From TrEMBL:
Record-annotated Core-binding (CB) domain positions: 82-162
Keyword DNA-binding tagged: yes
Keyword DNA-binding recorded: yes
Alphabetically ordered keywords of this record: DNA integration, DNA recombination, DNA-binding
Family per similarity comment: Belongs to the 'phage' integrase family.
Biased composition (Basic and acidic residues): 1-27, 409-418
Residue ranges of domain Tyr recombinase in the record: 185-401
Coiled-coil ranges (or none): none
One Pfam family recorded for the sequence: Phage_int_SAM_3
Organism in which the protein naturally occurs: Streptomyces eurythermus
Segments for region (Disordered): 1-29, 406-426
Protein name (record): Tyrosine-type recombinase/integrase
């Protein structure tokens, strides 16, 4: 970079003796005296002006610019003046995630970040600004889980600004800024009685949904989107699509994160589905694919509403699921004129947790469970369900006992809570 400092009050001319001398320009005494100029990596000229007697500051500023360029940390001062709101709009428009996830992220930023941070130039962010906003967020949003989602969205925007060389570093990631930390929670699977209690409380046309959730681990949208041709003849269920709401319209879409999968289909679950379809024949339903303006796709859905249409989750949850929870004693029955209590932890996802607990108790591997649940990372499955895995002591006792029995050397002594009591050789 060829940078230099221009003195706009004086210019250099040759005197009568042929030697250079400084003479005043027409700008002498007005405006800023010094202009530091350089050529940016994109080939454009940049500059900054400084007042009289501040040439040292101009030199220092230019030196810092040169050092940043040499380290690959140069930030265009003019580009960095774009506001957080303007940059966020561009960032959201460029997101490659599905429309539902994009809408959720956009909503968090519009409601809880842009009103506080929107007018600040993206290049001016410092940790103190995030700390102040974080405190306001704590006052405005009660749920630490939701606060963390909002915080992560802001951090993602600022990460992109760093990548685009508009910000030197992400202030959300410094040690003095504490990201919201949700209290650790453990999945508490329902009992068998609760599962079948909820099943009994559902309208007849929806009862087999419980068999799919508890017996195959499907998500709610995957159950709503199950088609006849997804049910195999050889003991497999093919999870290929879901029904979801995008911008107020129901659409068919791939399963979450595009994880198509095959799940073992138990004979009992298969029988429940067969009986359901005999009583409530599948219906051809046509919906757009992926987006409200996507191509039309038709599937013979196993589960539909009473009028033969795809099922809306909100209506199902309020009108069918929550009454079933109440009838099973999982949530209270509301008083007359009141609504059912919020029951986020007892949504249809609870059936997936039950499915996971049954498989782990039976000795299924985390890798297989992760595959059947459609998780992208077995490590995530392990973190969520590790406390449900049989203890190593229990597995060890069962393994040794099985070895003795298979060898015909099982002892007939009394059993204890710690495992089989073995005789000791004299």
């Amino acid at each position: 970079m060829a940078g230099h400092i221009q003195d706009r009050w004086y210019k250099e001319e040759k005197g009568p003796d042929g030697k250079p001398r400084k003479v005043r320009t027409d700008r002498y005494g007005t405006g800023m005296r010094y202009r530091a100029r350089y050529v940016a990596p994109d080939g454009t000229e940049k500059s900054k002006s400084f007042p009289d007697k501040q040439k040292r500051l101009a030199d220092q500023w230019l030196t810092n610019i040169e050092a940043d360029m040499a380290r690959g940390q140069y930030i265009d001062p003019r580009a960095a003046r774009i506001t957080f709101r303007e940059y966020t709009e561009r960032w959201i428009a460029a997101l490659t995630t599905d429309l539902t996830s994009r809408a959720a992220v956009e909503g968090r930023l519009r409601l809880h970040a842009l009103p506080y941070l929107g007018s600040r130039p993206i290049g001016s962010f410092q940790p103190e600004h995030i700390r102040d906003w974080n405190r306001r967020l704590e006052e405005a949003v009660a749920s630490p889980q939701y606060r963390r989602l909002i915080f992560d969205a802001v951090s993602s925007v600022l990460n992109a600004a760093v990548d685009d060389r508009l910000l030197a570093s992400n202030p959300c990631r410094v040690r003095s800024v504490k990201a919201p930390r949700p209290a650790p929670t453990r999945v508490r699977p329902w009992s068998v009685e609760q599962v079948f209690g909820v099943r009994a409380g559902l309208p007849d046309r929806y009862q087999a949904m419980v068999d799919l959730g508890a017996g195959c681990g499907l998500r709610q949208g995957e159950i709503f989107g199950l088609a006849v041709d997804n049910i195999g003849d050889l003991g497999w269920l093919y999870v290929r699509q879901q029904v979801k709401k995008v911008r107020g319209t129901l659409v068919f879409a791939p399963p979450k994160r595009g994880k198509l999968r095959d799940v073992p289909l138990d004979p009992e679950v298969s029988a429940a589905l067969r009986q359901h379809m005999e009583r409530f024949p599948p219906v051809e339903v046509t919906l757009p694919w992926l987006t409200p303006t996507g191509p039309k796709v038709t599937h013979r859905l196993v589960f539909t509403s009473g009028i033969g249409a795809a099922i809306w989750s909100q209506g199902f949850n309020d009108q069918s699921w929550k009454p079933a929870l109440a009838s099973a004693g999982i949530i209270p029955i509301p008083k007359k004129g009141e609504r059912y209590a919020a029951a986020r932890e007892h949504g249809m996802h609870a059936l997936r947790h039950f499915y996971a607990s049954v498989l782990l108790d039976a000795g299924e591997s985390i890798k297989a469970l992760s595959l059947y649940l459609g998780h992208s990372d077995p490590g995530f499955t392990l973190r969520v369900y590790t406390h449900l895995m049989p203890s190593s002591e229990t597995r060890t006792r069962k393994a040794i006992s099985a070895m003795y029995r298979s060898a015909g050397h099982a002892h007939d002594g009394p059993k204890t809570d710690d495992g089989p009591e073995t005789a000791q050789a004299a």
